Amino acid sequence: MDTIRLHDKTFKPYITAEEIDLAVKRIAAEIARDHAGAKPLFIAILNGSFMFASDLFKALRMPAEICFIKLASYKGTKSTGHVITSIGLDDDVFGRDVIIIEDIVDTGKTLSQFLPQLEHQQPKSLKICSLLHKKETTVYPLEISYLGFTIPDRFVVGYGLDYDGLGRNIGEIYQLAD
Ligand code: IMP
Questions:
Q1: Which of 6, 51, 104, 132 has the most ligand 1 atoms within 8 A of CB, as the residue to mutate?
Q2: I want to staple 173 with a disulfide (CB 3.0 to 4.6 A). Which of 61, 91, 130, 158 is the partner?
Q3: What is the architecture of the domain spanning 17-176?
């Protein structure tokens, strides 16, 4: 695979489609094992998680529901530090086994601001599932129950993740090269 150019930056291949596929199947199996007999409600955080959420949901061999909400704290490659909710949560989470699907946890601010809102609605259980985790930069402590890959503090794109709108439709994950 070659490098790619998005806007003014160059990205190099980082995680292959095969590696992503294996991680998705492993996570689906872990979730099914932990929720045997239950009917979890997945809440996928748009936009970045749409591809991961779709593949993960397809890989699940159990009854489950999914809904989508939108939270954003990013502009370009730097966190703006504040969370904006632009599409609300319509589903009733009271008494449900809720699993949040994120594309990436960076500082952890997005989720740490959103979790109390959900906890307020008294789900039976609340777990986080993220494809990627930039562990070194996470300042808001969060327990990620289901994780694809721990990655260093370097901007990545592809598989739903964007750099100023571009790169979401790439089937692999690329890392900033310069
Ligand atoms: P946090 O609130 O700092 O954890 O940021 C989480 C959100 O920032 C993710 O859902 C992404 O939308 C975005 N983000 C963080 N790191 C990256 C990256 O390397 N590439 C693309 N988006 C990122």
A1: 104
A2: 158
A3: 3-Layer(aba) Sandwich (3.40)
